[in-house]
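Final paragraph of the annual report: two paired records, presented back to back.
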Amino acid sequence: MPELPEVEALTHDLAARLDGRVISAVHLAAFSALKTFDPPLSAVEGTFVEGVTRHGKFIDISTGGIHLIVHLARAGWIRWRDEVPETPPRPGGKSPLAVRIVLDDPETDERSGLDITEAGTKKSLALYVVRSPQDVEGIARLGPDPLDDAFTVDVLQQILTDAGRSQLKGVLRHQGTIAGIGNAYSDELLHAAKMSPFTPASSLDADQVALLHAAIRDVLSAAVQRADGVAMSELKGEKKSNLAVHGKTGKACPVCGDIVREVSFADSSLQYCATCQTGGKPLADRRTSKFLK
């Protein structure tokens, strides 16, 4: 799933590519992707792109006073096309294409486009056409952005206190608590902070909160810097190649050399290093019959 660093890089890339271009057409290939009806999708056609920004994991294309907002969900992605076919895509079918945005350059008469795709059979990608980003419920409910200057140690302390006995992993992933962190980077920053994913949020003392805050800022900032300027087609590979524990089950921890372990859930999993994060004690997988603390 694209998370804050990848969405930030996509936003920067799109801002440069779309500057001064006109959205000449938007072809909806997967009707389930469009989550709004007023304004209609056609309202953005013929308008100049005014800017591209990020809200958590949402990409916001501002055009003609309207916001075309995309959430890539678990398996969505955006691909740039230097040329677009003359024939619009056929709705339905087995193609991963969900939306095609056709763009015109008024200065050169060149026509290019964005293909917004979604792999797999579980379709969660979402497209919104709204007058204000706050009209999208997911954006209105977002917690603070962890890279914003307003995200201080005190803000994190209050978040953890309010979360009570909830597990750190879940608190960090909850978009209404902190915006932009998903399954992969929650594993990564907990590894950097040397904390168990199952630690109760409110149990951290002041020093531990400061350590977690530093890990959040450092891990995400480093990932954003690495991704900046990387081509859209290479962002996924860049992310995977620089992860320390997420998706690395059975491999050596880059810090201590211990084996990276996994805990599986119904529709996801987490990875961690027992030596670095849990005092050497493995956390029992949901597939086993008991939980080891």
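The closing record of the year follows.
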Amino acid sequence: MNVNNNLNSAIVSGQLGLSRASDNISQHTNNIASLSVASRSSQSPQEFLANAVTTQLNAIKQTLPQAASGSITTELVGLSVNSINAQASTKVIDTANGTIGTILDILA
């Protein structure tokens, strides 16, 4: 068993996961920003509330959020999931680095 290759694999895997999570966080943040800009219109308060109620009712009808729907809820859930993915990838990298340190201590 080649420990060196396994540790390299863990570090590369962690870095790849962290990179993907970061890219997805950026995408969801951009989507939220565009939804916020789109929602600010010259509607009267009554029209705004009516549209908000209609939007919420349509969201309730769906059992699972659709990725293509572009709802704020979907984007916030995506942010949360990718934040957890980034934390998990960071732990993978930390564990691999700790393992390398332990191996160096044993060999020294």
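The helical segments are 3-39, 45-61, 72-107. This concludes the annual technical report; the extension proposal builds directly on these records.
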